Amino acid sequence: MYTEYIFIALIGLAAFYIKGITGTGTTTVIVALGSFVIDPKLTIVLSAFINIFGGLQMVRVDPIKISRAYWGWIAVFMVVGSVIGAFALKYTPSREFQIVLGLVLLVAALMFFIQKKSSKETGSSPESADSGDMIAATVSGVFSGFVGISAPPLVYYFGRYLNKRYLRRLLVLIYIPAVTVQTVVFILNGLFTTQVLIWGLLMLPSMFFGVYLGNLTFHLISESLFRKILGLVLVIASIRLLVLGIL
Predict the structure, then answer these.
(1) S-S: 238 plus which of 34, 105, 167, 178, CB 3.0-4.6 Å?
(2) What is the mean pLDDT of the chain?
(3) CA separation (Å) from 221 to 36, 108, 203?
(4) CA dist., res. 210 & res. 130, Å (int)
(5) What whole-number distance in Å separates Cα of residue 139 and Cα of residue 178?
(6) CA distance readout (Å), 101 to 31, 85, 143, 149, 226
(7) What residue numbers bound the domain in which 102 lies?
(8) Cβ neighbours of 223 (radius 10 Å)
(9) Could you tell me which residue, 152 or 75, shows the higher pLDDT?
């Protein structure tokens, strides 16, 4: 039991270090690494809960101006998708869920490996969201509530035209309402347990140091190297889940 608690705390440190760098990625790391030691379904619930606090801590980090008409509508549609995904998680059998999660982690890894910056990247954000933004947010919300992995599609889509700072700020702002609503749904449908609460409280101390360290090294990290390392972690986790789900 104590080994499990230590591992959970270390996962929290790694997850929030990445959040300090990118504004997201917390859930991706918690789900990928957490699935090695706890029920994969509970990693989704845990990541949603802990991301509430991580998101609030990130709000004051590099608070650049983004139009509320832009990020607000993206957040609304991500919340809608999150509710759908959270209910889907409850009613999907565990064995089938392991296979789905394994496939999603594998696709996410490929997205990290192949993503390239668009020449349209600008030093500002749009004044309002368009239909493509809203569709991307809804789909990402479903992924967030169901498999906990919404960072790759969000980074892939919005990273085509937002630079690193604006992308990080957008993800911080839209994740807070999404994970808050997810946690409420998980409480209502019974997935949020006392054990999840204990794991979350164990992660809180590492959260503050991880975000601080990530923000400190924000300008020193190569985005290309970061994506490759995280992609490799996802590949390993996905293969394990697929083997467990199929065999």
Answers:
(1) 105
(2) 83
(3) 27, 20, 24
(4) 34
(5) 12
(6) 9, 13, 10, 9, 22
(7) 2-246
(8) 14
(9) 75
